[in-house]
Amino acid sequence: MRGRVSSAASSDLRIAFTASDRPEAMSARDSLKARYGSVPMDQADVIVALGGDGFMLETLHTVMDRRTPVFGMNRGSVGFLMNDYEEDNLIERLSGAGRAVIHPLQMDAWGETGQVQSGLAINEVSLLRQTRQSAKLRISVDDRVRLEELSCDGCLVATAAGSTAYNLSAHGPIIPLDSRVLALTPISAFRPRRWRGALLPHQAKVCFEILEPDKRPVSATADSFEVRRVSKVEVRERRDIALTMLFDAGRSFEERVLAEQFAS
């Protein structure tokens, strides 16, 4: 989980700067490129992403195949996954940065015609009702039915990295990054009313079957990739894919997650 950017000690570190479409992010990118130089993303040792958490997720999806480490700096509205923005001493910050390695979820979603569409999620896979009618879901874990019928607005499976995002807003648990568990969290559960979700081993396969899909259509989303009117959704962790986020020394992702649990 932890480590250092070994190549960052060198002044020859190849950095790619990328920015969201916010004016302050683009301005920061231009200033940093002028000061430190820049290379294309496919030639970089490290990518510096300027924006908010949403843009950090976009950047991680962009480097999914190359696995290039990403150091985010906050030039957006939400910056839980980002470091503070500062132009000075960037090479030294990258040299001393700690690593947080995360593994995405794979979503396989069956549509009305039986066709399967797949997507990867760094934060969560979420199912949501599409109409005024509540969703009705049957939930299985490792091919064993654990909840015969959940009436709800939706349900999600979150990674540890995503546990402080939508999962937390849905009153799900905050998960330490090295815990090797996933959060299964209902969204506005109506029946069974007292079910608050579950913590699952990271290797668990979760299956959602949509009950009464014609009357109660449901969409499934892996981060920003959405499939409408699904009939079944399977979710599992892709341990073979490792994505690396970089954080300033002393401000590790693990420390942020721990501090969030004591936030008032």
TrEMBL record:
Enzyme class: transferase
Catalysed reactions, semicolon-separated: NAD(+) + ATP = ADP + NADP(+) + H(+)
Binding site for NAD(+): 53-54, 123-124, 153, 161, 164-169
Keyword Signal on entry: no
Catalytic residues (UniProt): 53 (proton acceptor)
InterPro entries for this protein: ATP-NAD_kinase_N, ATP-NAD_kinase_PpnK-typ_C, NAD/diacylglycerol_kinase_sf, NADK
Enzyme Commission designation: 2.7.1.23
Nucleotide-binding in keyword set: yes
Keyword terms of this UniProt record: ATP-binding, Cytoplasm, Kinase, NAD, NADP, Nucleotide-binding, Transferase
The protein's role, per its UniProt record: Involved in the regulation of the intracellular balance of NAD and NADP, and is a key enzyme in the biosynthesis of NADP. Catalyzes specifically the phosphorylation on 2'-hydroxyl of the adenosine moiety of NAD to yield NADP.
Family according to the record: Belongs to the NAD kinase family.
Full protein name: NAD kinase
Organism of this sequence: Brevundimonas kwangchunensis
Taxonomic lineage of the native organism: Bacteria, Pseudomonadati, Pseudomonadota, Alphaproteobacteria, Caulobacterales
